[in-house]
Specification:
single chain; 190 residues; 9 helices; Tetracycline Repressor, domain 2; mainly alpha
Length: 190
């Protein structure tokens, strides 16, 4: 008979194991067996909870995005005024926790998976729409060209992040400030 309350603990252990395994491998080239072993359970139990390796990665990305969302919300709560709120969103995208090796590997794997997996593509779409919505909310208060500036900022955030992640540089304290300088320049050109 299964122990009550074990399912959430086992799911969390599998999510952590997915992030660790992908981080160690640097790609999706990991097996459910290795993930399950790291989590201290059988691969059959891992399949029972998630069904497939892809579903495990999607659950891991939901977990990472939840933490990211909490950081964005905290940054927005401390920001005063629309321009500072936009800068808080930009900074949240470049905090140290975003550049943990295991998380950057999960992100890069997730980008690739979203090209071929409908569930991953849907989660990626939610992330991108939320970023767009958060930026536009305050850009409409600060700019006569909010959509254009949002597209530029979103592209800069993704591009600067991907460059740092692929370069395996780890956190770059100047990355957020680079995007913020571009934001300030875009506002000044109105």
């Amino acid at each position: 008979m299964p122990k009550l309350g074990m399912e959430p603990k086992r799911r969390a252990a599998l999510v952590d194991a997915v992030i660790d395994e992908i981080g160690e491998a640097g790609s999706l080239d990991v097996t459910v067996s290795k993930i399950a072993k790291r989590a201290g359970m059988s691969s059959g139990l891992a399949h029972h909870y998630f069904g497939s390796k892809d579903q495990m990665l999607i659950a891991a990305m939901r977990h990472i995005l939840t933490i990211f969302s909490q950081r964005v919300i905290a940054g927005l709560a401390d920001a005063e005024g629309p321009a500072e709120r936009i800068k808080a969103i930009i900074r949240a995208n470049f905090e140290d926790h975003v550049f943990e090796r295991r998380k950057t590997s999960a992100w890069l794997s997730f980008y690739a998976l979203s090209q071929s997996n409908e569930d991953a593509a849907h989660l990626m779409e939610i992330y991108q729409k939320r970023l767009r919505s958060n930026l536009l909310h305050d850009l409409r208060k600060t700019s006569s060209r909010p959509e254009k500036i949002e597209r530029t900022l979103s592209a800069l955030i993704d591009g600067v992040y991907l460059r740092a992640a692929l370069g395996k540089q780890g956190p770059d304290p100047l990355a957020a400030e680079t995007v913020i300088l571009a934001f300030d320049a875009l506002l000044a050109r109105q």
